[in-house]
Amino acid sequence: MKKTLVTAGIHGSEIGSVLTAREIKGWIESRDLPDVEVIPEVNLEAVENKQRENPRDEKDLNRVFPGNEDGTRSERTAHQLFQKAKDFERVIDLHTYGKNSWCVPYMLTDLEKDYNRNFCEKIGLKNAVQTGGKEGQLFIETSKLGIPSIIIEAGGAERYRDELEKVKDAVLSFLIEDYKKIQEEETIFYCHYERLSPEEEGFFEPKKEAGEEVDKGEPIGLLNEKEVRTDFAGFILGMKTTGKYSPDDESVAAVATRSSS
Ligand SMILES: [Zn+2]
Prior knowledge:
binds zinc ion; 6 helices; alpha/beta
């Protein structure tokens, strides 16, 4: 049984996490650590086309796990990866926000399972967020088998390299004993998060930043000059940057809260 599987590029547009995984892979190879496998470009054709879905079947790979060996390209890729992942003791899947948005580093998993919660504490990034999760995601499906599994989201466009650097350091500190230790922070567990997706299309201008706290009802930005508010107090995980907004495939912010009420 191998120990840790690190993946990225399940969504081909998330180039920042692909680059981070390549750096992690370089470190692992230089130390010759056979218990770790890093796959930076899981969805290679999507990565080459810098698009979220696989260009052959236009499916979101992270909705079709555990896959189907006789299915479409995405379903076959999911099947192959899932069969591999079953032989690992834990799974880390790296993602970033898409273009025109960014987020602070956070771990996303089903925290109601103790093994996922413990895994988050060992990785040691500051923010861990609960999700029941949409079916068909790698971390949800491996987690169901009892394999500790998390997504790490961080950064967005190129200028958010610092966030991705933190992810690299956290993952390598976990995997390599003598890697420079990141400053250890206590992990904060958030039991709920929501993406704010106003129905109106238009121009968005943020008034808050990812990493800031927001009060209930406080404006987080302007959409077509009108205030967009949260209906609960919380911590802003991610924000859209200034620009055009479309409710079809975007949200303007993701906000997490520690209380369940
Ligand atoms: Zn993603």
